[in-house]
Amino acid sequence: MDLSLLAELALNGALSGLMYSLLAMGIVIIYKSSAVPNLAQGALTMLSAYLVLAFAGRFNFPIWASIVLTMIVMFFTGITIERVALRRLAGRPIIMILMMTLGLDIFIRSTSLAIWGSSGRRLSVGISDEPLFLGPVLLNRTYVVGAVVAISLFLLLMFFFRTRKGIVLRAISDDYIASWSIGISVERGVAFSWAMSAVLSTSAGVLWGSAQGVNAGLAMLLLKGLTVAVMGGLDSLGGAILAGLLLGLFESVASGYLDPLVGGGSRELVIASTLILTILIRPHGLFGRHDIERI
Fold first, then answer.
1. Residue-number span of the structural domain to which 170 is assigned
2. Which of 120, 146, 153, 229 stands the most exposed, by the fewest C-beta atoms within 10 Å?
3. What is the pTM assigned to this prediction?
């Protein structure tokens, strides 16, 4: 066994897994406030990448300004989605809200394809394409930057949930009725969680767009983000980070050795298998809250 190859696959996989956590944390934030997995997170990630390209290309803004402007646009996009599409479904069965997020995913992807087409585009954010040498191991610089961003945002979110606004969101996630009874605006809290999730999708869109180009395929990152969120626990930010690291490592190592044997395509098989096994064996994830309802 080539230990250098194994180390390279493991390290790059772990770093890319932390980038999956950017999508997973967006899913977790919404789930914590509304108990609904957001199936539109991948489409929001794709949309944010296209918006950065539009601001940088058509309007000639610097890349940093394009990212900031996109975050602002996505913040209000998240609020708009909650107020226009989801608030009307308050009190309806969860499956209806879930189908709405699926419909949003299809709508955003279709609209993006109509506006920007299906051809891939390069998104340069100033990260060198040259590999980072760690002894005999080569690391993808974008993955390294993405991992740092993911951990930084995780720490920022952990701090936020200790602030007054964060405590309000935690109260909403624990009990809607009790929150209403003490005067907390649940609707505003849920809208704010959608706004935060949309902003997180910008960081994921920029980094993944830089790593693999901007195209419709970015929306398919939903499967990996959702797998990480389920594996870590749909209401656990810490679980999203750890699960992303583990899933990325396992995906990279397994596909690195399986692809030569089966001719490629094993990454999707690894992800799908992980999602199915997690649901069957540990449906509340590694750190998710295991609620027991008594009748």
1. 3-117+131-281
2. 120
3. 0.91
